[in-house]
Write a structure and sequence with these properties.
By secondary structure, this protein is mostly beta strands. It contains one helix and eleven strands, in the order αβββββββββββ. Strands 1, 2, 3, 4, 5, 6, 7, 8, 9, 10 and 11 form an eleven-stranded mixed sheet that branches. The longest helix is centred in the first third of the chain and has 18 residues.
C-alpha cells in the first residue's frame, strides 16, 4: 500500500510540474513555456507561452536561447490567396491588463537552426527581452510532438483553453 501511495504522489508531482510551471516577473506572469519535441532531422522548432500583464503595456522585442542559432518573434496570418503563412514581427505587444497567448497557429517564438533535437521531458533556457521590463529568464519544457494538436486539452498554453 505504501508503494502505491508513494508512486501516486510522485506521478501527481510530475503532472503538476508539467502543467503548472509559471514565472512571475514584476507585473508579468508567464505561464507554461513549452516547445514540441523535434525529430533529429528537424532544423527548426517553436516555443509557446502565455504572458499575463497586470502592469503597464510592454512588448517582447527579442528572444534568445543557446539551443538555436537564431530566434525570431513570429505570427501566422492568412494572405490574400487564403494561404496561412508565417511572418516575422519586430515585437509582440503585451497590452496592460490582458493575457497574450503565444500558441500554435498564432504568435510564437521561432527557433531556427536547432543545435540538437528537442527531447520530450527535457527543458532549455530562453531569455525574453521586453522593452520596459528588461530580460526575463525562462525554462521551456519540451512536450510530446503531438502536444497541443487536435482535441488535446493542452491546445494553446497547457491549461485547457
Amino acid at each position: 500500500m505504501l508503494r502505491s501511495t508513494t508512486l501516486a504522489v510522485v506521478l501527481l508531482g510530475m503532472i503538476g510540474t508539467t502543467l503548472a510551471h509559471a514565472i512571475k516577473a514584476g507585473d508579468l506572469a508567464i505561464d507554461h513555456p513549452w516547445a514540441r519535441a523535434t525529430a533529429a532531422s528537424q532544423p527548426n522548432g517553436a516555443a509557446y507561452l502565455t504572458v499575463t500583464n497586470d502592469g503597464p503595456a510592454d512588448r517582447i522585442v527579442a528572444a534568445a536561447t543557446p539551443v538555436a542559432e537564431r530566434v525570431e518573434l513570429h505570427t501566422h496570418e492568412v494572405d490574400n490567396a487564403g494561404v496561412m503563412r508565417m511572418r516575422q514581427l519586430e515585437a509582440i505587444e503585451l497590452p496592460a491588463g490582458e493575457a497574450t497567448a503565444l500558441a500554435p497557429g498564432g504568435l510564437h517564438i521561432m527557433l531556427f537552426g536547432l543545435r540538437d533535437r528537442l527531447v520530450e521531458g527535457e527543458t532549455f533556457p530562453l531569455t525574453l527581452t521586453l522593452e520596459n521590463a528588461g530580460a526575463i529568464e525562462l525554462e521551456v519544457r519540451v512536450e510530446a510532438a503531438t502536444y497541443g494538436v487536435g482535441g488535446n486539452p493542452a491546445m494553446g498554453h497547457g491549461h485547457g483553453n
